Amino acid sequence: MLRTTFTKTSSIRPFRAAFSTTARVMTEGATGSPPKTGGQGDAFQRREKAAEDFAIRAREKEKLMELKRKLAEQQQHLQRLSDHIDEITKDQGGEQN
Q1: Cβ–Cβ under 8 Å, residues 63 and 56
Q2: Where are the alpha helices (DSSP H) in the chain?
Q3: What single DSSP character describes residue 18?
Q4: CA–CA dist 64, 69 (Å, integer)
Q5: Is 94 helix (H, G, I), strand (E, B) or coil?
Q6: d(CA 2, CA 52)
Q7: For the segment 35-92, what is each residue's pLDDT rounded down to a tens digit?
Q8: Quick one: CA torsion of 7, 12, 15, 19, rounded to 10 degrees?
Q9: Contact, 28 vs 35, CB < 8 A?
């Protein structure tokens, strides 16, 4: 009778470990830390950053060229206005001309 009691008890409540012996494994970057240098992803990230920087510099250069063109147009316009004013005042005569 004692033997049957032990077998019935063990089949009802299976044995479970109180703690786990398996180590917790995380992949690189899963901890939220910045990626380490020297990996394959870093070469891609550096190339991507270089391409973005190049595109930004190209856009800034285009903007500067456009501003220089507008500045030159404004200076030409001011010179034409100044010449026109000089032409009008020259015909008026007087002490200052």
Answers
A1: no
A2: 2-12, 40-92
A3: S
A4: 9
A5: coil
A6: 78
A7: 555 555 689 999 999 999 999 999 999 999 999 999 999 999 999 999 999 998 887 7
A8: -160
A9: yes
